């Protein structure tokens, strides 16, 4: 019996022989439409005479195989979306899932199935045309963290670089809902909530302006000091974007003294959010606003020593952290231009 250790062997695969009775090596079985077409082309090459151009009818067994393969790869996406929307807009079902309870299989499957397709902008637009945005108020009203988290993941995917869906977020008042949630969510749920806010507003001017107008800078300032690394990272990413593109947002973050929050996080130790936190400071210092310069040079904060100590960390001694080191060095230049005042009586910032 032939060994099954061959890389191209698939249990149950069809096997063909040439005119001499020798087995024809079949390509790997396809897993999507593109590889299916390649499979069909490569499989028929083996039957062609060298240099020949004649075609012969496909035998019945192979024809049935290809038809079944095509059928298995064909998905009725609108039906998937409609089925998912129907489940997730069932208020009674969603409200029946209690705090701390595991998300039921049908609800989890509804989220997962739609997430498979809505990363395509056309499918995302179909989702909202089919009434998909009705899902979010219901799911965000759930006391179950898992449902709220999945709703944020879905909304973030639907809105990513999609002005049409970003506009729906404003139309349905979902940005206000997200900002309220961000003030109470914790851990992974907060990280996904911030992701949804970011996807709903970035590269969409009406969304960014509404975010600023609704007190989003206050919310993001609070989230920047959250202990969850992913939440801090996503928050820092959005803050940097807003500071770069919206002077009004930059001014608000300066007023909230996020310099102090960043310094405290860096002093506490290095993690995956450190580079993103540090990347904000050069943006704030651009233009040498006197308020932010003073915040950086605040003696009780001792930012200069924090940055110098950070540069000495073992992780930063290799080339994988060039940008992080450059951020530190750029910030330290402010102390060369404006010498730091000595700490008096070790008073702490109040």
Verbal overview:
The protein is mostly helical. The protein contains 20 helices and two strands. A two-stranded antiparallel ribbon has the order 1-2. Strand 1 (16-17) and strand 2 (23-24) form a beta hairpin. The longest helix has 17 residues, at 229-245.
Tally of separate helices:
20
Distance between the termini: 81 Å
Q: Averaging pLDDT over every residue, what do you get?
A: 85
Instruction: Report the structural category.
Output: mainly alpha
- Biggest sheet statistics: 2 strands, antiparallel
Q: Which residues form runs of ≥5 with pLDDT under 50?
A: 1-18, 24-31, 340-350
The outline comes out as elongated
Query: In what range is the share of β-strand residues?
Result: under 5%
Q: Summarize the amount of helix as a percent range.
A: 55-70%
- Element order, helices and strands? EEHHHHHHHHHHHHHHHHHHHH
Strand order in the largest sheet: 1-2
Count the beta strands: 2
Q: Provide the gyration radius in Å.
A: 28 Å
């Amino acid at each position: 019996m032939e060994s099954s250790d061959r890389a191209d062997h698939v249990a149950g695969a069809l096997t063909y022989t040439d005119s001499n009775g020798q087995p024809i090596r079949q390509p790997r079985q396809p897993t999507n439409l593109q590889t299916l077409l390649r499979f069909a082309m490569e499989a028929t090459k083996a039957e062609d005479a060298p240099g020949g151009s004649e075609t012969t009818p496909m035998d019945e067994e192979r024809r049935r195989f290809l038809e079944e393969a095509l059928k298995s790869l064909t998905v009725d996406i609108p039906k998937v979306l409609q089925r998912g929307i129907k489940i997730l807009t069932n208020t009674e079902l969603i409200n029946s899932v209690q705090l701390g309870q595991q998300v039921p299989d049908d609800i989890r499957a509804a989220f997962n199935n739609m997430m498979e397709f809505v990363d395509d902008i056309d499918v995302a637009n179909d989702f909202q045309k089919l009434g998909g945005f009705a899902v979010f108020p219901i799911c965000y009203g759930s006391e179950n963290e898992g449902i709220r988290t999945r709703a944020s993941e879905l909304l973030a995917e639907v809105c990513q670089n999609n002005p049409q869906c970003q506009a729906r977020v404003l139309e349905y008042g979902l940005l206000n809902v997200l900002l309220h949630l961000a003030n109470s969510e914790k851990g992974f749920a907060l990280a996904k909530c911030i992701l949804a806010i970011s996807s709903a507003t970035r590269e969409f001017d009406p969304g960014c302006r509404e975010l600023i107008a609704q007190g989003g800078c206050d919310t993001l300032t609070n989230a920047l000091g959250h202990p969850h690394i992913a939440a801090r990272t996503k928050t820092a990413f959005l803050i940097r974007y807003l500071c770069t593109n919206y002077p009004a947002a930059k001014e608000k973050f300066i007023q909230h003294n996020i310099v102090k929050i960043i310094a405290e996080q860096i002093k506490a130790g290095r993690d995956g959010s450190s580079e993103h936190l540090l990347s904000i400071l050069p943006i704030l210092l651009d233009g040498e606003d006197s308020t932010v310069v003073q915040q950086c040079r605040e003696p009780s904060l001792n930012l200069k020593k924090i940055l110098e100590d950070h540069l000495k960390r073992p992780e930063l001694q290799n080339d994988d952290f060039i940008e992080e080191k450059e951020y530190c060095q750029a910030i330290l230049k402010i102390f060369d231009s404006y010498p730091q005042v000595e700490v008096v009586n070790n008073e702490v910032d109040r």
